[in-house]
Amino acid sequence: MILPPRVTDRAFARLAEIAEAAGETRALRIAVEGGGCSGFQYDIKLDDPAADDLVIEKDGQKVLVDQVSLPFLQNAEIDYAEELIGSRFVINNPNASSSCGCGTSFSI
């Protein structure tokens, strides 16, 4: 059984802020693709749900994970971080054996 990723309250709150500013609610899609300097990379974007997506929802905000990406994101945590260099959605992935400095590329 694959354990789905967890989404923090901070990430859901940021999604709500984005929706309010845009005047529409779009879901946050987290996908894993081949590439990047470590072998895999995250693709994070606003999108509409597809029929076979895993949908994680709280207070009307949705995070989507496609079925191909789901095993790579098993038991991961999706968060939102504000740092001196900027703010972004981050993925704390226990499945990654290594990652690059940018935080968007990893290997398993």
TrEMBL record:
InterPro entries cross-referenced by the UniProt entry: ATAP (IPR016092), ATAP_core_dom (IPR000361), FeS_cluster_insertion_CS (IPR017870), HesB-like_dom_sf (IPR035903)
Q: Which UniProt keywords apply?
A: Iron, Metal-binding
CC annotations in GO: iron-sulfur cluster assembly complex
Q: Which GO terms describe its molecular function?
A: 2 iron, 2 sulfur cluster binding; 4 iron, 4 sulfur cluster binding; iron ion binding
Q: Quick one: a GO biological-process term for this protein? A: iron-sulfur cluster assembly
- All copies of the Core domain together span 7-103
Alphabetical list of NCBIfam families matching this protein: iron-sulfur cluster assembly accessory protein, PRK13623.1
The name this protein carries in UniProt is Iron-sulfur cluster assembly accessory protein
